[in-house]
Amino acid sequence: MKIGTTGIIFNEFTQVLLMQRDDTRTWSLPGGALDAGELPTDGVAREVREETGLIVLPARLVALTYLPARREPGLIFSFRCIQRGGEIATSAESPQVGWFPTRPLPRILLSAQRHRVQQAFHHAGGPPALLVEEPDLLYRAGRLLLRRVVYPYKDWRLARRGQPPFQPAPPWQISVLAALRSEAGQVVWRRRLADNQWQLPGGDGRQGEAPWVTAARLAREATGLDVGPLALSDVTVIEKGNRMVLTFTAVVQEPLPTAVCTYFTPGQEPPDAAPEHRPHATAACQFTGAPQFLQGLTPTLSSA
């Protein structure tokens, strides 16, 4: 899966910062793919500075968008950002950069980009929206044109200059955890039958499955609970390898229907509870709407 970021910046006149892409010549929000091992918060700040010259602080995550493409599914972190410095500047990727009114936005702006602008403009805080964005015909045609014509042409020009071809961003492996918490501030743990270790429900997703759908499915399979709306409580980039773990949380009120599951208060888990899962249980109970962005060790994710 490819992971990308988008930075949405408004000025004091409620204008939004847009850049013209060098490949499609359409207007777009600044952003791009994550580098290996990079946190989304770092990635969006880097991309905005590279493409627009502005130094920004990611203030809050307004949306997490899943793109269920057959060839290459994607995940987009959309941040509302605050300008902290810098001056508007163009780059090789952005021949034009400027501030635009939100109404009307430029005509040559894809519908997905318009939706992200409006999503950020109206986001008043709290959890990010969890969205599935089906690519429309225009988007698919554009991606095909880029792969078949534009990118090969750019590589040919680089080769003529003696420069290496463009290196696409590395794919990422996405896993999920479900930190289901009670109103009393306890989290559901499940004892793994293979070694009797206590773990949070979690694992890898299926083809075409949004991560929060995966979390709900694995939580139901592990605990028998049908959880309500999930919220993203933390994002962990694994220290070794291009792997990211998304932890989703929800409040549950039903009694646990299986003897292999129980509630533990964060910090009071038994010694045989997976140590790499404990920070996620704590983050879920401290969750107030804004997810945490962490770097950590590879967690144990099998619930078997």
Could you walk me through the main structural features you see in this protein, from its secondary elements to its overall organization?
There is one protein chain. Strands 4-1-6-5-8 form a 5-stranded mixed sheet, with helices on both faces. A 5-stranded mixed sheet has the order 12-9-14-13-16. It starts with a strand and ends in an 8-residue tail after the last strand. The longest helix has 24 residues, at 137-160. It contains 5 helices and 16 strands. The protein has 2 domains: 2-139, Alpha-Beta Complex (Nucleoside Triphosphate Pyrophosphohydrolase), CATH 3.90.79.10; 173-296, Alpha-Beta Complex (Nucleoside Triphosphate Pyrophosphohydrolase). The model has no long low-confidence stretch (mean pLDDT 89). The chain has 304 residues and is an alpha/beta fold.
Domains (count): 2
Largest beta-sheet details? 5 strands, mixed
Any idea of the CATH topology of the largest domain?
Nucleoside Triphosphate Pyrophosphohydrolase
User: What sequence of helices (H) and strands (E) makes up the elements?
Assistant: EEEEHEEEHEHEEEEHEEEHE
Can you give the helix content as a percent range?
10-25%
